[in-house]
């Protein structure tokens, strides 16, 4: 499976929401990161056909590299704020979605059982949706997105409302699906994708400013992340002089993490960068 986006441009009156965006995706997890207003939702809506765009193209190719005309039977989508018929039960909602997505009648029951177990909702399958907690509704949203074995799965802030245990469960589900699926994972929670993403895409003001394999993405901030431990009086100057990624106290010492091209102090220790550091480098006004 392959998704190819070329020179995509979308404008709203005087605002450019997407500015000449080009991406190529195959099976794997693509972390789509960026601040509010970066264009993530507009890009997602363009891919799934909810909005039209003024320029560019979006094409899908099957495993034989043949262009596909229809996406909907192989698409799974979890919006940021999923909405359901509140008087349906969990099971009825999934039965409805499975029918809409064209699953064969002889496999629907088995597939509903599979996804309910995957998202830990099997024991709650007969509950009315109006009685579900926010986290349970989010898990139902995940279930409906994967029920048709999608080849392209798009999830927008999928872990919102999930407790830590369920977030780990969800990441495991996504990681397994991505072996045969293109997964676009839009999120503000960088830690959710740091360990499972195969590719990192940074979107800023409608432009792709970074599209890189996770293994090589840190080259842009390599040797720039430093940690300093000292008493507060000696670090005041550093806090005003350098961009600060993190600062916290341990007993009577201040620990600060900063970005600097050069060693900022004799007692500074260079540390391995994390995805959150990369995010802050591009979006935290620390350049």
Automatic annotation (TrEMBL):
PROSITE patterns: ABC_TRANSPORTER_1 (PS00211), ABC_TRANSPORTER_2 (PS50893)
This protein's UniProt keywords: ATP-binding, Nucleotide-binding, Transport
Cited SMART domains: AAA
All residue ranges annotated as the ABC transporter domain in the record: 3-230
The keyword ATP-binding is annotated on this UniProt entry: yes
Organism domain of life: Bacteria
Pfam families, alphabetized: ABC_tran
Stored Gene3D superfamilies: P-loop containing nucleotide triphosphate hydrolases (3.40.50.300)
InterPro entries: AAA+_ATPase, ABC_transporter-like_ATP-bd, ABC_transporter-like_CS, P-loop_NTPase
Nucleotide-binding among keywords: yes
MF term (GO), any: ATP binding
Coiled coil: none
UniProt xrefs under SUPFAM superfamilies: P-loop containing nucleoside triphosphate hydrolases
Transmembrane segments: none
Family classification: Belongs to the ABC transporter superfamily.
Protein name as catalogued: ATP-binding cassette domain-containing protein
């Amino acid at each position: 499976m392959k998704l190819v986006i070329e020179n995509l441009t979308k404008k709203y009156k005087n605002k450019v929401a997407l500015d000449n965006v080009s991406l190529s995706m195959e099976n794997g997890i693509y972390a789509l990161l960026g601040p509010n207003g970066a264009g993530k939702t507009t890009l997602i809506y363009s891919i799934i056909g909810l909005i039209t765009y003024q320029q560019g193209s979006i094409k899908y190719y099957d495993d034989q590299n043949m262009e596909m005309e229809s996406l909907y039977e192989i698409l799974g989508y979890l919006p940021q704020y999923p909405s359901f018929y509140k008087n349906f039960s969990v099971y009825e909602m999934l039965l409805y979605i499975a029918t809409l997505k064209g699953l064969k009648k002889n496999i629907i029951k088995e597939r509903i059982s599979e996804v309910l177990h995957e998202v830990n909702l099997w024991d709650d399958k007969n509950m009315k949706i109006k009685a579900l907690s926010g986290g349970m509704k989010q898990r139902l949203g995940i279930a409906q997105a994967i029920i048709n074995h999608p080849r392209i799965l798009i999830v927008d802030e999928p872990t919102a409302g999930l407790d830590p245990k369920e977030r780990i469960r969800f990441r495991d589900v996504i990681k397994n699906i991505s072996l045969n699926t293109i997964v676009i994972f839009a999120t503000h929670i960088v830690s959710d994708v740091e360990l499972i993403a195969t590719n990192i895409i940074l979107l800023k003001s409608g432009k792709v400013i970074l599209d890189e394999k996770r293994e090589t993405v840190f080259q842009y901030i390599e040797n720039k992340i430093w940690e300093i431990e000292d008493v507060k009086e000696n670090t005041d100057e550093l806090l005003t002089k350098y961009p600060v990624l993190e600062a916290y106290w341990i007993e009577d010492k201040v620990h600060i993490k900063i970005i600097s091209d050069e060693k900022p102090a004799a007692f500074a220790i260079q540390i391995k960068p994390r995805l959150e550091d990369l995010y802050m480098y591009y979006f935290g006004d620390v350049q």
